[in-house]
Amino acid sequence: MSTSNDHGLSEFGYRQSLDRSIGKFASFAAGVSYISILTGTFQLFYFGFGTGGPAYWWSWPMVFVGQIAVALCFAELAARYPVAGSVYNWSKRLARPTTSWLAGWMMFTASVVTLASVVLAYQVTLPQLWSGFQLVGDGSGAHDFGISAVIWGAVLILFTTLVNAFGVKLMARINSIGVFIELIAAVLLVVILAVNVVRGPGVFVDTHGLGEGHTGGYAGVFLVAAIASAYVMYGFDTASSLGEETVNPRRTAPVAILRAVIASFVIGGLILLFAIMAAPDLADPRLGTSSGGLQLIVLQVLGGPLGKVFLCCIVVAITVCALAVHTAGIRLMFAMARDNALPFGVRLARINAKTGTPVVPAILIGAVAVAILLVNIGTPQIFTAVTSVAVVMIYLAYLLVTVPMLVKRLRGGWSGRDAGGHFSLGRFGLPVNVVAVLWGAGMSVNLAWPREQIYGGGVLRWMALIFIGIVAAIGLAWFRLRGRHRLGTLPEHQADRGDRLVDELS
């Protein structure tokens, strides 16, 4: 184990340039806030329930089983490679340059799209707090909801940009406070909903007849509704993406990753479970609309004043979720730029002397996220369309890590035990890795499938495939023609020879 003050970072050829100040709770909070129990469950409950009825709840444990397999693989990687830009740097050590670059490029692009999708959640919650938060019209117009969502989204992106530009300590402090509020609110919400249940667990086999006339019957409907759950449980790699800013990252990050997924599954699953059992009227059509959904159940069950207090907590959760997503995107962009793997790498990898953070990526990511919102401003399915594209890209980026990892295991190139005594799956690594790959591939296909109820009609049905295809084609064209010939750590980020020697001898 390295005795240098960079926590072994020089082992990977880098010098410590980011501010290492994140502790155990802040690392855990980074993963939890990206997953964001309250943001995800409240943002897309209406879609899951409206599409699959009460029985859609079973997609929650289904998604957990698949994602915990991915998280276990990532925990192993986090223990061995505690470097910024987790997915990119992991794939770089498992696969060939083109594959690893594509993993980073897809994850980075997905982070920007995810930021655009997360900030849309403000519009789902704020107008239910006060009608004045509906900034355009009264919400009944064809584009009132979408335009207001874009305005609120731009405001939130401006906030996350400024916070990230000011430094990791401010970001971690706001994030930790926000996650603490979110967890307390989520647990209290579970308790309050539990004591107000009005029906038994038999409701979870009720499909509301939504499979009738649908291709594949209810199974086909269920796969569509599962998007609501798939949207929540990802982003847990953020705890490792902040590895260069975390104290003792080899031990802290793996635990933070797993705790974030498990906590989100348990608390989020109970919120959905008891909310469905406590809803006054499951036949209320508003439960399947973006202006009603889970927020409406909370207001109905808890009553106006108390219900609105919890909606305020949801606004806090959305805020820190967007902050975490923005932060993760910045670290990924910095990691790739530091390897000169992006155009204008020198500028993108520059650390501000005062704040200790890469400021240019913060501004650039914020600007592009706002542009994505503006492009989709007239799309009626703006919530589900942007969200689904983001999730597909995340799943594909994860596959570009888990597949090379599986190949390395099968070829005997991955040791079952970690020499440093850190987290390792041991003999369970291969079956867990297989599940992670099969799950990722299956859900990628399911999420990208051209469905009108998700992406809209006409050519928009193919939005995910078209967008991802263009992003991949443009990226690979640049990398193959120019990028791969200039790969290499920028001089200002290379580890000193003395630090490398210490690592080699320790």
TrEMBL record:
Give membrane topology per the record: Multi-pass membrane protein
Instruction: Name one matching Pfam family.
Output: AA_permease_2
Keywords of the record, alphabetical order, are:
Membrane, Transmembrane, Transmembrane helix, Transport
Q: Name one GO cellular component term.
A: membrane
Q: Which residues cross the membrane?
A: 25-49, 55-79, 100-125, 145-167, 179-198, 218-236, 257-279, 308-334, 355-376, 382-407, 428-447, 459-479
The record, for Gene3D superfamilies, names: Amino acid/polyamine transporter I (1.20.1740.10)
Q: Which InterPro entries match?
A: AA/rel_permease1 (IPR002293)
Keyword Transcription regulation among UniProt keywords: no
Q: Where in the cell is it found?
A: Membrane
One GO molecular function term of this record is: transmembrane transporter activity
Name of the featured protein: Amino acid/polyamine/organocation transporter (APC superfamily)
Q: Which organism is it from?
A: Amycolatopsis thermoflava
